[in-house]
Amino acid sequence: MTRPSFLFCFGFGYSAEWLAAKLLPQGWKIAGTARDDAKRAAMQARGITAYPFPLPDAGMALAGVTHILSSVPPRDGHDPVVAAHGDALRVLPDLAWVGYLSTTGVYGDTGGAWVDEDSPLNPSTPSGKTRVTAEAEWQALGLPLHIFRLSGIYGPGRSAIDQLRAGTAKRIVKPGQVFNRIHVEDIAQVLAASMARPAPGAIYNLADDEPAASSDVVLEASRLLGVEPPPEIPLEQADLGAMGRAFYSESKRVRNDRIKRDLGISLACPTYREGLAACLARLSSN
């Protein structure tokens, strides 16, 4: 008798929610961790077993797990899942696939030059540096690991469409600065494709086809909504916090050939234009 597929998500966040929506109708068993009671209650209502983190009893919670996804960010310079449960993960007998969601920030600033999965890791921000450490800590566990380096995540509820509607959108301009994005629907389809075609040790960039300036995205969102775009703000006048300043300190173009070649991916949202249109369509349907 074939053991049923069982996905455990450390950090049941935005990307994990979209992946679960793909897998639950296929009969997958899914469990995961969330920080607050309300989120865990919402998970339970969807048939997803929910736990706090760290797991009170890792052996019990992880029994029978065949797939692991972690989207938990580093903490105090290290990966908290590896620190708390690395020993328990090492001895899971049925593990076929492990996915770790990292970031293209591990490549650092390239001045707009292209990077791929074989490019050197040269992080220039504190978060990028800790992600390099976290990747290495996951690799050291000896699991069937797949690393996914994500560009800027967006989708329904988390897009320039939503920011404009909320009155929080800013059209910040830094000449020459570009970056890639990835729609959450495409994150889910890449993860599902990898789970169906495991290649332990593989690293994948999750990025769209068109690196672009953030101001261009706000302009397109304004066009779709039929509203006046916010005025341009030079970066030095934008009054950004530390994370925002770190984001605008880097410019790179990220290649995504590997997900297309090795996983057969055709992006649902190959550029921010299709992605924003999809966000607006979902908003309108709700």
Question: How is the secondary structure organized here?
Answer:
Elements: E1 6-10, H1 14-23, E2 29-33, H2 37-45, E3 49-51, H3 58-61, E4 67-70, H4 80-90, E5 97-103, E6 114-115, H5 126-139, E7 145-150, E8 152-154, H6 160-166, E9 171-173, E10 181-183, H7 184-196, E11 203-206, H8 214-225, E12 232-234, H9 242-248, E13 253-254, H10 257-263, H11 272-285
Parallel strand pairs: 1-2, 1-4, 2-3, 4-5, 5-7, 6-13, 7-11, 8-10, 9-12
Helix pairs in contact: 1-7, 8-11
Our Rg estimate from Cα atoms comes to: 19 Å
Tertiary shape? globular
* Low-pLDDT segments: none
Approximate strand percentage: 15-25%
Structural class: alpha/beta
Number of helices: 11
Q: In what order do the strands lie side by side in the largest sheet?
A: 3-2-1-4-5-7-11
Order of helices and strands: EHEHEHEHEEHEEHEEHEHEHEHH
Alpha carbon gap, first and last residue: 42 Å
| Main β sheet profile | 7 strands, parallel
- What is the overall pLDDT average? 96
Q: How many DSSP-defined strands?
A: 13
Helix content: 25-40%
Structural features, described:
The chain has helices at residues 14-23, 37-45, 58-61, 80-90, 126-139, 160-166, 184-196, 214-225, 242-248, 257-263, 272-285, and strands at 6-10, 29-33, 49-51, 67-70, 97-103, 114-115, 145-150, 152-154, 171-173, 181-183, 203-206, 232-234, 253-254. It is of the alpha/beta class and 286 residues long. The strands form four sheets. Strands 3-2-1-4-5-7-11 form a seven-stranded parallel β-sheet, sandwiched between helices. Strands 6-13 form a two-stranded parallel sheet. Helix 1 links the parallel strand 1 and strand 2. Helix 8 (214-225) packs parallel to helix 11. It is globular and about 55 Å long. The protein starts with 5 loop residues before the first strand and ends with a helix. The mean pLDDT is 96.
